[in-house]
Amino acid sequence: MEITQFNEFPVELKEEWNKLLENGISHVPFLRFEYLRDWWQTRGGGEWPLDAQLAILVARNDGEVIGIAPFFVSYHQGIKRLLLLGSIEISDYLDLIVSEQNAAAFINSIVTYIKEQIIPETGLSVIDLYNLVEGSPSVSILTAAGIASGFEVTEARLQQSPYITLPGDWEQYLNSLDKKQRHEIRRKMRRAAESEIPVQMYLASEAAKLDEDIDAFLALMARDPEKARFLTQPMRTQFRQTIHCAFSAGCLQLAFLTIGGEKAAAYLNFDYLNRVWVYNSGLDRRFMDFSPGWVLLGHLLQWANVNRRAEFDFMRGDEDYKYKFGAVDRFVVRVTLTN
């Protein structure tokens, strides 16, 4: 197994990267070449300093790419660390890019490479991998490989990542909910449908209007004071690039609820791999009498069932509303190898 280290983004690997991801242990949108390339350009919307250094490790066997470790080096909490591209805040799921068949050999090889090459070269002391999905083969393999190479290894749950398994039928989904919750969803959606003021769901689909829709979405996000602080100019650039990237890839689901022609609520989702991935949302509280967030979410779940999506993934965060709509927990974890 031959390992090559890239200190600049390897644009020539785009096709091999995404092809490998399709058969990888964690096929998630946050590991696609385009997403991570854009993430690196903005350093995660300003989360990381411009002097952070790329250290992408690519393993080949007889010329074929069999594993990619998309790493970078930066200080975090006062310590120089090796982290996964996409860390920490805005990429809900991360992992190494490798098939399950090759995972053990690849992970053992890169841990040895890091120990022998990157640590002496950079002076870093910690390999710190955030947002791995609990149960990914990489978690146990990294733990074993780290211990074998003399690292102190810790594994910790970070947070819940609730999801709903969908039956493919709207009424069947509703009947799976608590009776009170089922009644609330139906009541609010019916009330909106019967309103004298038109209430409609709108999906962004026109390239010519996409920037206008992005502006509307960011404006709705910014109505929340906490999200307004989060939306710095670099973060706005990151969101814009992510939305354009998803639109180009055909996996964007940017949904609005309009009330009397005004955009009252929005969800930014990815429609990818037969799953709806809920990324972020915005709400205009002037329309709270219509319960716009719940109504839009109801419409999106109805759409997902009608269109036979297998899962509705709320991703990270344990907000109450997710469980009221029937979500159950899985977790993302952090694996740390300290030299």
Topology:
Blueprint: E1 2-6, H1 14-22, H2 33-46, E2 53-61, E3 64-76, E4 79-84, E5 97-98, H3 103-122, E6 126-133, H4 137-148, E7 152-160, E8 163-165, H5 170-175, H6 179-193, E9 199-203, H7 210-221, H8 225-230, H9 233-249, E10 252-259, E11 262-272, E12 275-283, H10 292-306, E13 311-313, H11 320-324, E14 331-338
Parallel strand pairs: 4-6, 12-13
Antiparallel strand pairs: 1-2, 2-3, 3-4, 3-5, 6-14, 7-14, 8-13, 9-10, 10-11, 11-12
Helix pairs in contact: 2-9, 3-4, 6-10, 7-9
Q: Could you give the count of β-strands?
A: 14
Can you give the mean pLDDT? Answer: 97
How large is the share of residues in beta strands?
A: 25-35%
The CATH topology of the largest domain turns out to be Aminopeptidase
Fraction of residues in helices? Answer: 25-40%
Tally of structural domains: 2
Give the H and E element order. EHHEEEEHEHEEHHEHHHEEEHEHE
Broad CATH class of the largest domain: Alpha Beta
Number of helices: 11
Structural class given helices, strands, pairing?
alpha+beta
Ends distance: 24 Å
Radius of gyration: 21 Å
> Stretches where pLDDT falls below 50 for ≥5 residues?
none
Specify the CATH architecture of the largest domain: 3-Layer(aba) Sandwich
CATH homology superfamily of the largest domain: Gcn5-related N-acetyltransferase (GNAT)
**Shape field:** elongated
Characterize the main sheet.
8 strands, mixed
What would you note in describing this structure?
This protein has 339 residues and is α+β, with helices and mostly antiparallel strands. The protein has 2 domains: 2-159 and 334-338, Gcn5-related N-acetyltransferase (GNAT) (Aminopeptidase, 3-Layer(aba) Sandwich); 163-313, Aminopeptidase. Helix content is 39%, strand content 29%. The strands form 2 sheets. Strands 1, 2, 3, 4, 5, 6, 7 and 14 form an 8-stranded mixed β-sheet that branches. It has a 6-stranded mixed β-sheet with strand order 8-13-12-11-10-9. Helix 2 packs antiparallel against helix 9 and helix 3 (103-122) packs across helix 4 (137-148). The longest helix has 20 residues, at 103-122. The model has no long low-confidence stretch (mean pLDDT 97).
